[in-house]
Amino acid sequence: MLLIAGAVASCTRNGSSERVTLPPTAVLSIRKTWAVVKSPLLRVREEATSQSTVLSHIRLGAVMEVLTRSDTQDTVENETAYWYRIDYQGLKGWVFGSYIDIFDTRAKADQFSATLQ
Question: Domain 31-116 classified CATH 2.30.30.40?
Answer without folding.
Answer: yes
